[in-house]
Amino acid sequence: MAFYNQANNNGPTGFYQPSPQFQFPQGSMSFNQPAATTTNPAFAQEPLPSGLLNALSTKGYSHELPLLEELGINFSHIATKTKIVLQPIQSTSALPTEIMGDCDLAGPLIFCLLFGTFLLMAGKVHFGYIYGVALFGTVSLHILLKLMGGEQKQQQTQLQFLRTASILGYCFLPLCFLALAGVFHSLDNTIGYSLALMFVCWCTWSSSGFFTTVLQLHNTRVLVAYPLVIFYSVFALMAIFV
């Protein structure tokens, strides 16, 4: 009965009427917060493209970024880095900053899979060795190159782990040609040793050019190339010997 009388005192409808001093919480559940669809009515009224092909594609609203761009995959950067590796004489100092700072790993993963597939076609199952040596070598080289670069104060000269893995992976491409040659002919001879030496030097020259540009090191390319030769030589031995 007391509760009924209190409800009647609050108003004719029987519901509780808050006092003027009462304020609703200004959080995510606030009543005066506008709806998400009313902030930009143009986006809310824009229809999605219809059809079976559009349903299976990655198309969305026009104001949204493409799916590959959201994932950080830029085909123009991939093509540019691949061209630099295929043309080792070309200087890397003229490359834009966004390309040098790109940490894309799509290209390196493709090259590692190609290398392992070519070895498999030659009767060598070395996928576990490839991934293990690549991971251990990337971590070791990243630590060593950071020590060689010293205490870099500028943001653009900081060497990140993904950037190290990206450079090492892109410069791994010439070894795929060596593994492809091993599919058609045995490399355990003088010709195979010569090809392996040439492709290892190719990988080393390209990767050392990238690292000296990123770390802004001068007159130290031979010093940077020494651990890189050892890294790529391990993969060359996989392609030569059974």
From TrEMBL:
UniProt key word Transmembrane helix: yes
Organism of origin: Lachancea fermentati (Zygosaccharomyces fermentati)
Protein name in UniProt: Protein YIP
Membrane topology: Multi-pass membrane protein
InterPro entries: Yip1/4-like, Yip1_dom
Family indicated by similarity: Belongs to the YIP1 family.
Main location: Golgi
Keyword flag Transmembrane: yes
Keywords assigned: Membrane, Transmembrane, Transmembrane helix
Example GO biological process: vesicle fusion with Golgi apparatus
Domain (Yip1) ranges: 98-238
Source superkingdom: Eukaryota
Annotated localization: Golgi apparatus membrane; Membrane
TM stretches of this protein: 105-123, 129-149, 161-184, 190-211, 223-241
A Gene Ontology cellular-component term: trans-Golgi network
